[in-house]
Design goal:
The protein is mainly α. Helices cover 80% and strands 0% of the residues. The chain has a domain of 73 residues: Serine Threonine Protein Phosphatase 5, Tetratricopeptide repeat (Alpha Horseshoe), CATH 1.25.40.10. Helix 2 runs antiparallel to helix 3, helix 10 packs antiparallel against helix 11 and helix 13 packs antiparallel against helix 14. The protein is globular, with a radius of gyration of 25 Å. The termini are far apart.
Length: 321
């Protein structure tokens, strides 16, 4: 009887410990402490090797560290254990795809069949799985025709995306036409996405298109429109960056970079050193070499190992001679 009571009381404690381990792992993942998440989950799975959530989280932890071989192993377990769950096929295909990107092109070709099978199965299992359709849009555009690439198939999944989400459909078609070197068609679809959705992602796609087409004034105008709708300090940096790189609207670029620096927080993403680097570029364009030198020195002081900062200082010093 005593042994039975010990067992009965032990079961809830074990269960609680399992839940606690999973919760700890989730918190580690949220905080981007991926090694701690990995170790916590590996210990958990020794006791509960068939726990679906634990296996998925471990695959996620491996993926965040770009340990693609390990992620593939975990996601393949999920596909075998739960073959009718679309998201598991999607994650498995995604890990295979990332592995393929990190090996030689010859070896990567051997992964393509399995990647396609995984994504197509996910799409079949879940007609509303947006991420899978995005993956298929990109896969069919990026593959050479000789091994299954197809613009028409890519457009087919873009149409499916549009039926699920107009914004995603327009962005997907913008991507297809940009990739296929049809910038006017791409611009039209990105503008449609902005009109319907208006997210920063929509604006960024159009900005990047304009920059790739060497149209900096259009890029700046688009970023300013984004700034009017989204109160993000990072947009000030983007304007300054385009102004500095293309030697246009320099006063506006300088003002935006100063605003970025004055309002900077770690949430803005780009370190202040890069804003000072852009200010140095702007003053170099203006012929203010002393000011340019001041700002490039500030950039180097903050991030002394950035090669382009050192190169920019060399250019400025040559102009000053």
């Amino acid at each position: 009887m005593k042994q039975l009571l010990i067992f009965l009381f032990a079961v809830p404690l074990i269960s609680f410990g399992q839940v606690s381990s999973l919760d700890d792992a989730k918190q580690f993942l949220l905080k981007k402490r991926y090694i701690q998440a990995e170790k916590t989950l590996e210990r958990f799975l020794i006791e509960s090797p068939s726990n679906i959530e634990g296996i998925e989280l471990l695959g996620d932890a491996f993926g965040q560290q770009e340990k693609w071989d390990d992620a593939i192993v975990e996601y393949e377990k999920l596909v075998e254990m739960k073959p009718n769950v679309a998201n598991y096929h999607y994650k498995y295909g995604g890990a295979l795809g990332m592995k393929a990107l990190n090996i030689s092109k010859i070896r990567a070709v051997t992964f393509i069949g399995d990647i396609k099978i995984a994504f197509l199965k996910a799409a079949e299992l879940d007609p509303k799985h947006i991420d899978t359709r995005w993956a298929l849009v990109e896969l069919y555009m990026q593959l050479p025709g000789i091994i299954g690439g197809s613009k028409s198939k890519s457009l087919k999944y873009a149409d499916e995306l549009e039926a699920l989400s107009k914004v995603d459909g327009y962005l997907a078609k913008g991507y297809i036409y940009e990739y296929d070197d049809e910038p006017e068609l791409a611009e039209g679809f990105y503008k449609k996405a902005i009109k319907i959705g208006g997210s920063l992602t929509c604006f960024d796609k159009l900005t990047n298109l304009y920059e790739s087409q060497k149209q900096p004034k259009k890029a700046i105008a688009n970023i300013e429109e984004a700034k009017s709708k989204h109160n993000r300090n990072a947009l000030h940096y983007q304007i300054g960056k385009v102004a500095a790189e293309y030697n246009v609207e320099l006063n506006k670029g300088e003002q935006c970079l100063q605003t970025y620096i004055n309002n900077y927080s770690s949430a803005d993403g780009v370190p202040k050193a890069w804003a000072n680097y852009r200010l140095a570029q702007i003053h170099k364009h203006k012929g203010n070499t002393s000011e340019a030198l001041k700002y490039i020195d500030l950039a180097i002081t903050d991030l002394p190992k950035i090669k382009v900062f050192q190169e920019e200082k060399t250019h400025i010093l040559k102009l000053k001679q």
